[in-house]
Amino acid sequence: MSQLPTVGHLIGGKIITTGDRAQDVFNPATGKAEKRVLLAPKATVEEAIANAQAAFPAWRNTPPLKRARVMSNLKVLLEKHAEELCAMITAEHGKVLSDALGELQRGIENVEYASYAPELLKGEHSKNVGPAIDSWSEFQALGVTAGITPFNFPAMVPLWMWPMAVACGNTFILKPSERDPSSTLRIAELALEAGLPPGVLNVVNGDKEAVDTLLTDPRVKAVSFVGSTPIAEYIYAEGCKHGKRVQALGGAKNHAVVMPDADVANAVSALMGAAYGSCGERCMAIPLVVAVGDATADAVIEGLKAEIAKMKVGPGTAPGMDMGPLVTKPHFEKVKGYVDQGVKEGATLVVDGRGLKVAGHEDGYYLGPCLFDNVKPGMVIYQEEIFGPVLGVVRVKTLQEAMDMIDAHEYGNGTCIFTRDGEAARYFTDNILVGMVGVNVPLPVPVAYHSFGGWKRSLFGDLHAYGPDAVRFYTKRKTITQRWPSAGVREGAVFSFPSSR
Q1: Which of 168, 279, 283, 416 is catalytic?
Q2: Of 373, 378, 417, nearest to 399 (Cα)?
Q3: Which residues contact 11 (CB under 8 A, 6 or more apart)?
Q4: Residue 498: its pLDDT value, please?
Q5: Nearest 5 degrees, angle CA 41-CA 473-CA 81?
Q6: Strand locations in 317-428, DSSP E?
Q7: If DSSP states are collapsed to H, E and C, what string results for 153-195?
Q8: pLDDT, tens digit (0-9, with 9 covering 90-100), for 198-255
C-alpha cells in the first residue's frame, strides 16, 4: 500500500513535510483517507512566529503601494488556478464544485479590497491646531498577527484575514482547519508566487497545541478566529489574558421570517439554497423558518417538500449535484443525532434524509435534506447550532412574536425577512437584535468592502471581520503633534494644561 501524500506547513517561504504527529484527511464523498496532514508541535509554531517576526521590519517599511501590488498579482493567480483550488476544496470538504467556486470568488473579492490598502491607510492631518502646531494621525502595523480558521470555508475565511493584515504591513501566521488544509496551503504558495516575501505569511497545520502557542506567545500581537461559540469564547478569553487584540466569530442560529404577504414561491427557492447549500455547513445558513400564521407555514412546508423532492445529492464533483456529503464521519453522526433528538422532542419530521444512500459511494458521509415542522423554542434542534442539512419551521401568530423569539436567542449572527411590506421590513431591520439582516435576501453576507460580524454570542470583540473594520483591527493609531518655533523666539515656561486658546 502506497504512503499517503503529506500536507505540511509553510514556514519562511519553504514547505515543511517532516514531523512526528499527523492525522488523516478524508474525502467525505468516499469516506476514504487520501492525505495526511502534519500537526505542528509548539516548537514548529514558534519557528513560524520567529520567521514572521524577522520578516516584519522590512515588510512594514515596504511602501503600501508595493504591498498592494502583491495583492493585485495574487488576485490574478487565484483566478488562473480557480479550477485547481475548487477541486481541492471539494475533495476535502465535500461541497459541490459550483459552491466551491462561489466561496473562492468571495475570497478573491477580499484580496481585491486589500489591494486598495494605500487609500485605506491614509491618516488624518490638521494644520495649526495651536500656534505653529500641526497634528496628524497614522495607522501603523501591529507586528506578527495570526488567524485560526474553520473547515467550512477553507479558501474564503483565510482570505478574510491575512490579505488585509499583510497589506497593512503586518506579518501573519495562519492555522487552518486540519480537516481540509490543502487549498489553504496552495493559496499561500500562490501568494509567494505573487511576490509576498518569505516569512510574511506562514501556514502551520495543527490542533489545540498550535492554537495555544499562538494565544500565549508574546510575539503575536493579534488573533482572528472563526468557529464555534465555545471555542470563540476560549480564544477571546485566552488571547485577551495574554495581552492580544482578538476578534473571535462564533456560532449562529439564523431565523428567516416569512410574512403572510410574502412571495412564497420565491421565498421557498431562496430558503432551499440557504438551508441546504453546502450541506448546511455555513454560519450564515438558515436552519429555522419562522412562519407568521398557519396558512403561511402550510404553504412554505408544501413548497419546501416539493423542492426537496427534486434535489440531487451526491459527490460534489458529479455534474448537476445540489448537495454533497458532510465533512467527516463524526460530524455526520452528530447531525444525524440532532434529527433523532428532534423526533424524540416531538417536532414533526416532514422529510427524513437519514436513510439516504448514494450508489457507488455507500461509505460517504451523506445525509439527505431533513425538514421539521412544529419546532418550538426550548427544543435542542431550535437552540443549538446543527451545522447540517436540517431545516425547522416554527409557527407564530405575529411579526412581533417572531422578533421576540429571535431576540431571545443567544446567537445574533444573521436573520432575514420575506415580505412585500416596506413598513414591516423597515421595522424589522431597525429593531431586530442581530448583526446582519436581509430583506428578501436569505444570506445577507456583506460584500468585501463592508464588514462581517454578528451580535450577542456570535462575536467576541469590538471589530468585525474584513472590510473597513479589518483595517482598524490590523493597525494601531498613532497621533503626532509637532511644533517648529520661529527662529530667535524664546518662550517662557507654561504650566497650564495646553489648549488651542
Answers
A1: 283
A2: 417
A3: 44, 47, 48, 51, 202, 203, 204
A4: 74
A5: 65
A6: 348-351, 370-373, 390-396, 411-412, 414-418
A7: CCCHHHHHHHHHHHHCCCEEEEECCCCCCHHHHHHHHHHHHCC
A8: 999 999 999 999 999 999 999 999 999 999 999 999 999 999 999 999 999 999 999 9
CA angle, corner 11, sides to 5 and 14, nearest 5? 65
Q: In the block, which residue shows the cell 488651542?
A: 500
User: What span, in angstroms and rounded, lies between the C-alpha atoms of 187 and 77?
Assistant: 9
The model's pLDDT over 346-362, given as tens digits with 9 standing for 90+, comes to 999 999 999 999 999 99
Res. 500: pLDDT tops 90: no
The reply to whether 283 belongs to the active site is: yes
> In the chain, what are the domain boundaries?
6-250+458-480, 255-439
Examine the pLDDT at 2 and tell me if it is beyond 60: no
Q: For 174-258, where are the alpha helices, taking DSSP H only?
A: 182-193, 208-216, 229-241
pLDDT tens for 366-425 read 999 999 999 999 999 999 999 999 999 999 999 999 999 999 999 999 999 999 999 999
Cα distance between residue 338 and residue 495, in whole Å: 70
Ranking 1-10, 93-102, 462-471 by mean pLDDT, the lowest is: 1-10
Q: Are 39 and 22 in contact (CB under 8 A)?
A: yes
Q: Percent of the chain scored above 70 by pLDDT?
A: 99
Say whether domain 255-439 belongs to CATH 3.40.309.10. yes
Owner of C-alpha cell 448583526: 435
Q: What are phi and psi of 246, to 5 degrees?
A: -135, 135
Q: Which amino acid is at 251?
A: G
As a residue count, the chain comes to 501
CATH 3.40.50.1000 is the classification of domain 6-250+458-480 = no
Contacts 24+ apart (CB under 8 A), 495-500: 498/130, 499/130, 500/129, 500/130
